[in-house]
Amino acid sequence: MRILVTGASGFIGAHIVAALLEAGHGVTGCARNVSRARRQCPAADWIHADFNRDLTPEVWSGRLAGIDAVINCAGLLQGSARQSIESIHRDAPIALFNAASTAGVRRVIQISALGIEDGNTAPDTKYATTKRAADAHLMALDLDWVVVRPSLVYAAGAYGGTALMRGLAGFPVVIPLPGGGTSQMFQPIAMDDLARGVATLIDPKAPAKLVLDAAGPKTMNLREIVAAMRGWLGFAPAPVLAVPRGLIMLGGRLGDVARWFTGRGTVTTTSIKQMEHGALGDGASFAKATGIQPRPMAEALSLMPSQTADRWHARAWFARPLLRITIALYWIATGVLTAFATPRAHSDALLTAVGLGGAFMPYVFWIGCAVDPIVGGLLLVRWRVRLVGATMLAMTVGYLVLLTLGRPDLWADPLGPLTKVFPLMAATLLMMALEDDR
Asked: pTM higher than 0.90 for the full model?
């Protein structure tokens, strides 16, 4: 069969693509970065799709030629200035489902989520309401639809909420958890079990018109899940620090701001509300429909041993944004302090010494004061981090060359105004290397 998979380069989508290929199916994957997706998975065919823009059935009709089934894996936790959650969760999927109905593609599988159910207990988040809207629209169509609602999904790799839990598992000394981590309940399911199960559902003879809770066999609270991940990583047990909800929500609101500007960030008010709500369901329905019996978390983890890279990822998860923010603030501070705190005579003498005096010196001064905060601000909002980091490195080398030519005595200064930049350059290179989220 030829399967169209949207969100095919994402956390869940990439594993489903792998499971389909292993089962012998042809896969057409939809991704925004087609060249990268093709490098990562050359066995699949790739086409460009953007759920922020592909909002009409006409856009999807041509992509469905020769397609036997559709699996929609596109999703995100919270919108931003660059990403519309309404478009990605609701409008684009509805356009895709309508196009499938018109094109005669009968089998459509929607990867939704547990914890978004209707009723008074549902969390009041756009994540839940937009997911529900797409689910409801699909279920109203005369198609062989299946809505799969996974609980917490974990794998050897990690992204989103799973990456956050791994970061908590790698926290040094103590493990900070909201309220101690005893009230947030999940039924974690291994990615391999989910992906293999979904791959069985594309068969035309498979059950249809079903809502399936893809949930593991054991209910676990957040503390138990993080402890299991910590043990899997090989870290010694650590005491849990119960963090008050007010402090957690403050962090979530700060995360909302960061996500709006950067498009990234896992700790948001949405993630907190969804985590508090939990993700529980009847996993027996998924097992019956697919023939896949999800394994307990301890068993599944034992079959995918952690590696050094997993421990690096866990330990660096919270340090990585701190590193980027610190470097950004450093560059912002250098420009601001030079412009408004350092005696102008000192700056003029330095510019004269390096051959930048004369009539143009005021312009050079103010341009220099402005450039540092600009690159720092771009880094702060996470705009093309590698490009900005490379610019910072080039500028630093330029500063070193000029100062070496004009003020070589600064190399011997006991405060190390020149030698101190080398640790900063090393930190910038590390930041650039750690930029990828997945």
From this structure: no
